Give the backbone structure.
Amino acid sequence: MASVVGTFTVDPRSRAPKGRARGEGATGWAFVSPSVLIILGLSVVPVLWSLLLSFQVNDLVSPSEWVGLANYKALVKDPAFGSAVSHTLIYTALYVPLSVVAGLGIAIALDRKIAFIGLYRTLVFVPFVVSAAAQGVLFSFVLDPEFGVANSLLHKLGLPAQGFFSDPGQALYLLVAISLWSGTGFCVIVYLAGLQGVSSELVEAARIDGAGRWGVLRHVTLPALAPVTIFLLLFQTINALQVFDLVFVTTKGGPLGSTTVIVYFIWEKAFKTFTAGYSAAAAYTLAVALLVIGGALQIYRRRVAAR
Amino acid sequence: MKRISGWHLVLAPLAVLFALPLVWLLVSSVMSNAEINRFPPALWPHAIKLDGYRYVLGNALFPRWFLNSFIVSAVAVTANLVLGSLGGYAFARIRFAGSKLVLGLMLATMVIPFQLTMIPTFLVMKQLGLIDTLGALIVPSLVTPLSVFLFRQFFVSLPRELEEAAWIDGCGRLRILVSIVLPLARPALSTVAVLTFLATWNDLTWPLIAINSDSTYTLQLGLTTFQGQHHTQWSAVMAGNVITVLPVLLGFLLAQKAFIRSLASTGLKG
């Protein structure tokens, strides 16, 4: 969601037509006030409230008690938070580069006019619109150790049956794989749109200068797509660091806590063990990390765009 | 004879790989319980059995969840179209004190991650008495900064001359927006509708927090709990899953261009 914040153009003619400029203030505010009230009311207030909560002990029912930095201090020492952070980082480090690289490769493969190309595109995109809950329920079944089709196939191939989501050594990687199945389509869509903007004259010129397929890709296409790539890295990273729904539906953070990611940790602390202050401290830690990553990539993106 | 492209050798298996889990979803939803629950499970049904669908639709809660999801999504889409276009139009066309500041603030809220606001939002909804009602799901999704922003960008790109004749004739802003600008705004309207529908129909996190009673569940939440309670009746669970996915899938197949343009636009406007 952070993507759209970038630059927005200001209409140079943004002034009222002659003669009736006065009295427009009331109309303007009347038009925007419902949106402003809802959006700012449900973001600014909660953000400040969360900050207060993170310095308090709160069980969502009784009045809260001020504890200063105790939540943050406990968080640093909590091994469960530490492993939630590392699970999230492993997930992100695998999912983001793989989805972006695969997205680029598939987009290039799909960027041609051949028979069935519309069908191919549809099939690659379609998992992206399937909800995380539906994906989770589907793959819980496919990967069910007893009744799932995955083990049935392994059996047919003469391979040993796997534990899948019940195996602490596999569960997190399976979540990455499922996310790749559904999330790569988004990268493909964005890259395909970006490829339409790569100047065909430049490609032609490079060809005439003797560049092969790889030469064109490396020296023309990839540099032209750099802003798209940076956007996707940012977007996918922000999404990956916030993964929750799929985890909740498939593993509930298990087995043996092997898939407890940061947002699952935050949800659990707030709505399962009712330690909302502690949860808010974890949420703030994650939010600051997201802001730093987002800010750094935005600056880098401006620099690339300015070049 | 036309030469067949070698790319089919790459693209066809790839497309099958992406489609296979969904094909399996559909296939397993029409298997009989006997076939689905044997070891090793059957890879293909011998006959199409609608046991799963009968079970799911006979369960009074499932249709209820569908209705709940539909109500939340329909209200959210309508509200985002109305409030988003009103706000977007004012930010694009009307000069008023504070507009740049407010727009900047609204866009800045897009970087706030949901986990940061979910506990206070829960407490706010509790204060309003909305927890465990559809209202708790509807209020936060009435309008998003993205909807306002997408409308604003579209209206800024429209030539101002279109509105000038009506303005000189003395039409008000609302009249101009409704009868001149909006009929030209189909791309913006469909983008906002698609993105809002996807976000509300597919959401699980917020309903999980805000709803407790099973009669108020949305489909996503209902399906998740249903799976927890019926994990031995896989054909029923998969039938429920098909019903959950179907509206989005049909929408995508019928309006593929609008979907893809909407999704790509979130990436390229930045």
In short: Chain B has a mean pLDDT of 90. The CA atoms of residues 3 and 137 of chain B lie 55 Å apart. The domain at 60-229 of chain B is CATH 1.10.3720.10 (MetI-like fold).
